[in-house]
Structure of O-fucosyltransferase family protein:
Amino acid sequence: MHGYSRLGRPSTPSPPSSPRFRHGRSKNAIVGGSAVGGGFKGGGGGDVKLQNFVERLVYMVVAGVYRRRGVLLFAPLLYISGMLLYMGSLGFDMVVVSDRVSGKAAPLGSVYRSPQVFERLWPFMEAENNGSSSNALMHAWNPRLRQVWKPCLNHSFSEAGEKSNGFLIIEANGGLNQQRLSISDAVAVAGLLNATLVIPIFHLNSVWRDSSKFGDIFDEEFFIYALRNHVNVIKELPEDTLQRFNYNISSIVNLRVKAWSSPAYYLQKVLPKLEEMGAVRIAPFSNRLAHAVPSNIQGIRCLANFEALRFSEPIRILAAKMVDRMVRNSSKSGGKYVSVHLRFEEDMVAFSCCEYDGGEEEKREMDIARERSWRGKFRKRGRIIRPGAIRMDGKCPLTPLEVGMMLRGMGFDNTTSLYVAAGKIYKAEKYMAPLKKIFPRLETKDTLASPKELAPFQGHSSRLAALDYTVCLHSEVFVTTQGGNFPHFLMGHRRYLYGGHSKTINPDKRKLALLFDSPDIRWETFKRQLQEMLHHSDVKASELRKPSGSLYTHPMPDCMCKQADVRNEADLTQ
């Protein structure tokens, strides 16, 4: 459900670039089990004989040098030359791209061995079941590590002018949070241009296929009311304006604005057209405003995203019931629960080019999925895909099993209530079973709400995503596993609600690749590594926005003030 928008659609994304091996240009590189160039013999027997011969040769040369005192000064030079010859003859520049190449082991972290690791560690997990140890859910976040921030949108920022410069019409595309980004940026641009914003049009995306309109997902009346003092918003163009354009919005000039355009660009290029024509369109309107804008414009962005954009009443009512049910199901942990954004849908697995444990059947299914969604992009001439290198680089979607092992290693025991936000999981029956075994109190929207309750939302991916978003928003711990708009907006919203702390586990997937490729790892070592990862997420959860960063993910300091600053402002107003 969330998969497509988290792949950067609607513009067709390029496949992930394949990480290159350091010695990719070596003449002796081994590809698919065959040697390119001479000097390599299968089975490794030739290597052993050659190695022994070179060792004896180097020993004889060095010994001879030491017997002849006259050439003793050349000993270091001869020794180094011998070692270079030794290393070269053994082919240290050879690259092993598969654990099936010549019987050599693949690099650590390049192979999916999580089921073997789980088989070894499960007895230890079972021994710590049923609350026998302290559940990390009760002390996941250390309050000493952060300063407390509070929302403060009282700062002076742009107010709606008495006379509008014209009407701004934008088209929001993509999934729920791509739409959210477009809407909030459009409000900011309308404020910048002193334009009247028409309620955004939602593009019927060929991938999402969600026909929902603005009012189906967001509370239209509240949106207009919340922005009333800063940006004029109307539901539709006035009759006289429609008449001027023959009642055809397509007749209104569509300005092609480049991505991440600056405020200066809008003032110099868009504003004159707006004043001349009385109305302009910008479609598509995705990522069309730079991150770095004046503070008064940032303030409007904050207001739009964190306050004005609340979900429609049907979504809010069902989402509130789902949150309440999660809280009641979490009585053993004081109403606290963990939510996970799981990105293991078929399209995400296919796009990643990673290999799991499905063999030839999985490969065939992924080839079909890639061709169906990205026609030919993965078969371009010269493109080399190395699944092992992609896994080592931390780019592979975590399987449900890996998420379960990670959380157990961090200290979340089997009494933890777990909510999984996801689309249709690839081979769900196979891959979800281990996660349910590790966390029996697992829920999804399909188990938390009845078929009758979900019926009005079926076939509308953005509305279903809004349900997931709300349940994740109110969890004690949120876990992101693959990036994308959904976790980025959610982390920002959680920072806004929870004193500047996102309460989010953002794992180091490069380290996870190493841990999950270590079938002999000890339970204590596994736990120590993952608890350090949890601590690191705690430290990073209160990060401020960097100049190139988005306030939708990092609302401090643009949308929030430190608690001390809030108190000082209150004192000044008394």
